[in-house]
User: Fold these one by one.
Assistant:
Number 1:
Amino acid sequence: MLTRYQNHFLMPKEIVDRILPVSKTIRYVLVVDNHGETVFSHTTPRSLINGDQSESIAKDVHFLGGLLKVYDDIVGENIFTHLIRAKGHILMFHKAGWIFLVSCDNASRQEVADMADEIEDIIHAHMG
């Protein structure tokens, strides 16, 4: 039987394990809890982010999530954020206080949209 602590990390790892095969363009996956702490991360060999940067990125992502809450009363809770950067895409899925960040190569917007739909389905399937 898993302790509460072990279960806290098992579910995100299982979700990340299902996200990674969605596309060969995925470089990095980070799961951040509602306190801005890294729960789980996976860096692929092609990632522009190294493992040492995960904690800093987790804090930044949590802070960004807080900024987006300003609009919750106006347009509803944030469920997905897509940032397009010069070197790739960053997808952030917001679910039950957690943020799942997925970075990927510069792919077409349609390819990224399809990938985002599939990742969102995986997160919902595991988190209800």
Number 2:
Amino acid sequence: MGKPKAKRRLGENQAKSFGKLLRGSPQKLNLVAQTIRGKEASKALAELTFSRRRIAVEVKKVLESAIANAENNHQLDVDRLYVKEATVGKSLEMKRFRPRARGRVGRIRKPFSNLTVIVEEREEAE
């Protein structure tokens, strides 16, 4: 029996990938996500490959996963894909402490982030 299949929330020409617990602050991750929004998938991959930011490696993995989902699960044409959305969210935060002078303590925050990438297939321009 089980429960009925959930309806698909995305369009027929869209595919999604979600990256959980990416080690880095949402503010820094959003800087990288801004560079790929609205670009063709191949150009976005090239830009992430040569980006000097550490988090760009993780963003590239999530984008590659979205492209693979589009190709394998939804039979979309990889050459016509572009990044429709790249949204960043805040996740958990590890808190660490470092001893400081005169019995005080310095708090160290180690933030994690979530990333959602949605790719969409462009219609053919005739």
Number 3:
Amino acid sequence: MKNKRHLKIGMDYHGVINSNPNYFKALSQELSYRGHEVHVITGGPCHEVSRVLKELSFCYTRLFAILDHYEGTRQVQYDKQGRFHVDDELWNSAKAKYCSSQGIDLHIDDSLVYLQYFTTPYCCYDIENKQCLLRGSPCLDFTLSPTQIVNKLEKNFLK
């Protein structure tokens, strides 16, 4: 029997999932139901984001938080007020490195700051219009149902 390839979709938490939690929850459920992976990729911290995702009953495969990642490598500095700092280059490239290492098919984020580091297809989510733009042209229209979005993703990435 031939193994069916599954999608790996990255979704940013701050600015994407939290901007429309019910919609992205339904989308993640549809992706999971069809056997695909959902990677929540965020600045962090992991414990706060995972708590909210649990409260939402949000389906995801893995959670990656930049802050936690760099704390693990001892590359985070804290000032006396408890504010943290990570080198901009490290911070801005972390999501791209994660997506590349995990074989993510598409990452959905609301910030263009990270785009220059990505080789993985990257959709920039426009919160107001509920569209995801890929290099300036509409990629995904999140006014469509989650089922329609997953159909489009499967069509485009599982050729």
Number 4:
Amino acid sequence: MASTSDIRKGLCIKYNHDIYKIVEFLHVKPGKGPAFVRTKLKSVTTGKVIDNTFSAGHKIEDVRVETRSYQFLYSEGETYHFMNTDDYTQIALQRDALDAYDLLKESEVVTIIFNAEDNMPLSVEMPASVVLEVTHTEPGVKGNTATNATKPATVETGASINVPLFINEGDKIKIDTEKGAYLERAKE
């Protein structure tokens, strides 16, 4: 058993007869009244995201998990195939288990979280950022900007990202996988 002081991003807990992963949390200490923790929980079975508030000191049941590195091989419709980088065994996961599936390109190495009790895959953790090539974007017109003007660009995985006007087709860009946002032009 853990308490609210152990809450951190990525922690898997049992709540309402399901397993949830903590996506966001905020410890709040109001001027009047007891402290509490506001959380955003994502179900690892259904993918549904809920908001929940735990009072300070509330006991939560954490799930013991193991993480393993897997390489993304290919996708077939809603099914994504991965290979363990240690023993080369393969597993197939549904699209719901992935947070940013549209930024996943072949041969990308991800971390898969497994329930230690029954060895079931719970979720897929993307790397903090990925480098992808821009396959289509309109040319930026110089002079029609105010500040921080952006334009839509399609990357090699098919995802659409807003990028600055100086990015052209063929450029490689670094993308934050958590927000799905442009970070910088990749250094080659």
